[in-house]
Every structure is written in structure tokens, then in C-alpha cells.
Amino acid sequence: MGTIVSYISPANTGRTDDPDPATGLTSRDKYLVRTSWARIMKNSTDSGVALLTLFLKNHPEYLDLFPFKNVPLDQLSTNKRFRAHCSSVIYALASIVDALNDNELLIQLLLKTGSSHISRNVKAKGFKDLQDATVELFSAVMKPDELEAWKKTLEVAFGVILKGLVEGEKL
């Protein structure tokens, strides 16, 4: 009985000795990702704006890939088209968080993300740079253990996204 209560209790912060065979993420990693993600989602669009603004400040060369490419960088945060895209990016990340316990769904979501960006001329380096920007942003707002869990999660996620990108390019 105690095991069941501790498993479903809100105080359960996950085990560190149970890596998922497909992802390598432990229960603790997933717990930390979910709880820290809840804070990001409190202001989801603004979080997306912060992420994409950082990404484009670090890599302005990617601005040409977007439909808002003619908007000056310092005006993007108020541009509705940019904000809509930022919201889409955050909800794509939310779908990853939501699927952490369903590996088949997670893999399909990530493969689709990679393949759907081929027509937009997004290359592997662009995804890697977005991963780096995500870690940079999260490092400013998360505790060290949360950030480490996110690094592991993003490594897995972007690895599958890149696989979708490569496989889709072969078609």
C-alpha cells in the first residue's frame, strides 16, 4: 500500500534508477521536465517570444526562413505573426512534454516535426542552434537539476527530429 501511495502522491519526485530503455530519461528527469514546464506555460506565448527572440538574436541568419523576415528584430516581439509562430513553437514543445510517457507517440511527433521542416529549408544546424537557445534560455529560469533534465530531454528530442529531417530528405 505504501508503494502505491508514494507512487501517486504529488510529493513523488521520481526515481533516478529507472532509465527508460528508449529515451534514457528517468522518472526523476520526466518529473523535473513536467514541473518546470508548468512554469513556462503560465505565460506560454511570452515564453515562446523569449525563446525565438534569443534564437534569432544568436542566429539572425535564420530570420530569412520565416514569413516575418522583413520585420526588424527589435520589433518582432509585438508582431502578431511572430507571436503566433512563437506560440506554435511552445505548443510543439508542450506536445513533447505531454508525450514523455508514450514513446511511440513521442517518436512520431518528433519525426513529423523534422520532416515538416524540409520544405521550409531548415537544416540540422538550425535545429541544433534552437536546442542551444532553449538550453540558454532555460538556464536563466531553472534550477540546475531541472536544467540537466531538460538537456537530456532535448538531446533525445532533437536527435529524433534530426532523424525525421534526414529520412524526409531521402524521399
Automatic annotation (TrEMBL):
Gene3D superfamilies: Globins. This is Globin isoform X2. InterPro entries: Globin, Globin-like_sf, Globin/Proto, Mb-like_M. The keyword Cell membrane does not apply. CDD domains: Mb-like. GO terms for molecular function: heme binding; metal ion binding; oxygen binding; oxygen carrier activity. PANTHER family: GLOBIN-LIKE PROTEIN (PTHR47217:SF1). Belongs to the globin family. It comes from the Eukaryota. Residues 24-166 form the Globin domain.
